[in-house]
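I hope you will forgive my troubling you with a question about protein structure. The matter concerns a single protein, recorded as an amino acid sequence and a row of backbone structure tokens. Please examine both parts with care and let me know of anything in them that strikes you as inconsistent. Here, with my thanks, is the record as I have it:
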Amino acid sequence: MSFLSRLMLLALLMLSTVQGGERVYQKPSEFLHTVFGTNLPATQALTLTSSHQSRIKRLLGHPYRTSKVRYWSDGTKTAWIPEEVGKTEPITTGFVTKGGSIQEVKVLIYRESHGYEVSSSNFCKQFRGATLNNNQLTREVRNIAGATLSVRALGGLGRVALYLDTLK
């Protein structure tokens, strides 16, 4: 194989890696078992009214694409698994809320070709202890160069999870 052929093959392999695809860090069912152990609470659902949708639109900056939101609660903590589009693809994220604050954040499935750094535990731990005040998180979430839209998506989902927690 010539040098040029090897170089082209290497470029194709790198391009296919950059193009990404779906990265499953943890299945939603596994996330729920991590949160609740073997005693998984029953799935519950909130039906979002037009008033709820209006508030969520202010939190996200655009309408939320679903009218029902599933959640799991054991009476002390609640798990939410919402999705939000980063640049072009949905990011599936697990949130655990308790007493009006975020206890845990985990990116479960990342589908974008760039910005996957938001799935790191160092990024996600910035949300711990955040509450909602005047439609903003009370903790600053640092931006990541090249992942701005994914950072915004997770921040929006954090605000939505905290708002939904007040509705259940």
Summary: Helices lie at 3-19, 28-36, 50-60, 121-124, 148-167.
